Amino acid sequence: MRLILITTVWLAAMGLSACSEHQRESEQRPQPAIAVTTVSVAMADAADRLEAGGIVSAQESALVSSRIVATVRTVRVRAGDHVRAGDVLVTLDSQDVVDRTQQARASALAAEKTLMQAKTERSAAEAEQRLAAAWHTRIMTLHAKDSATAQERDEAEARLAAAAARVAGAQAAIEAADANVAATQAAVGVATTTESFTTLRAPFNGLITERLSDPGNLASPGTALLRIESDGARQVSVRVDEARAAYIRPGDRAEVVIDVLDDRAADNKALEGVVTEVARAVGVDQRAFTVKVSLPRSVTARTGTFARVFFRGAPRRSLVVPATAIQQHGQVTSVFVVLDGIARLRLVQTGLRTSTGVDVLAGVDAGEAIVISPPPGLMDGSKVSVSEAGARAGAQP
């Protein structure tokens, strides 16, 4: 038994010795170099990125409300209905308005009759004036021949003056009647226009987004009954601080990210928008300008959805590296820097991400070679064989 035990211990020791020898040989055997592609870090022209939050809205939006106080009779649309300009949306109780219209038309008709009567009276007064004038001429001729008395002359002059006064009165009555006709016709126009207010129509082609009233409710000016939004492209309205608004101009391109519930939706990706309007007046309460950014017509995000807009800010110089060179492990960001054929892991602090790459604030220096798209087996201290990319990181074309 002792001989067997001694033999077993000896064999185990020999095995351990052989394993150690094999490990030393594998460590001494040169490892093959890993092929990598590098770029040289360089300074590049860049710009600050201005971010502002806003709301997606339609190009045109309107709250449909009544211009008179009346009871809602019918509401012909519901939320989600598409309408065309001129379509009837809501009808109001029009009985009271119709009665007023008929009353105004009756008053206009009476005024026209009064005008006709005044014109007839003027005609009669003019005929009497002509007769009085003829009589006055005859008496004056006879008086000149001493064939008429002074009293007859005075009576003829008085008769002529009275006839002229009646003509003037008839003319004044015609003018008053004419003014009354104009007033009553204007009242008919007002009543007719008011009667048209009992039918509410769509102001433009669009989509009904909210129905805020039902038949039987009392409509009044300023109380919304429906909300309608125009079809077509959407826009994002944001508020930009007045110190940064100087860098934003109509026609500028901006990156827009729309936050939607469905992460798979196409609208949740970065979109390219165009600045269409920059408010000329600053908001006194917030010291900010309103900026409107139009979106592509393919965007179907609901109005009211929150969106983030990124504008190009002040120009600056910075170190930019390709996004494929950045490795993210939790909260740790790193790159591989090649020094004397050896890959060294370098922790870096990154800034803005743009279409040209990622700003590096600390961790690398200009002129250093960094690995782009590191292979899976690359580790700190790995030997590498380098092939350089065609352009330096951050270099301007």
3D architecture notes:
There is one protein chain. By secondary structure, the chain is of the alpha+beta class. 31% of the residues lie in helices and 36% in strands.
Q: End-to-end span in angstroms? A: 83 Å
Categorize the overall geometry: elongated
- Sheet-strand content, in percent, reads 35-45%
Number of helices: 3
What is the alpha-carbon Rg in Å? 47 Å
User: pLDDT below 50 for ≥5 consecutive residues: which ranges?
Assistant: 3-13, 261-267, 390-397
User: pLDDT average, as an integer?
Assistant: 80
What would a concise description of this structure say?
The protein is of the alpha+beta class and 397 residues long. Helices cover 31% and strands 36% of the residues. A hairpin with a 2-residue loop joins strand 19 and strand 20 (357-362).
List the helices and strands and how they pair.
Blueprint: H1 2-28, E1 34-40, E2 42-58, E3 61-65, E4 70-75, E5 82-83, E6 88-92, H2 95-144, H3 150-196, E7 199-201, E8 206-211, E9 218-219, E10 224-230, E11 234-241, E12 253-258, E13 270-278, E14 288-294, E15 306-321, E16 327-329, E17 332-339, E18 342-347, E19 349-354, E20 357-362, E21 369-372, E22 384-388
Parallel strand pairs: 1-22
Antiparallel strand pairs: 1-21, 2-11, 2-15, 3-10, 4-6, 4-9, 5-8, 6-7, 8-10, 11-14, 12-13, 12-15, 13-14, 15-20, 16-17, 17-18, 19-20
Helix pairs in contact: 2-3
List keywords for this structure.
397 residues; alpha+beta; six-stranded antiparallel beta barrel; disordered N terminus
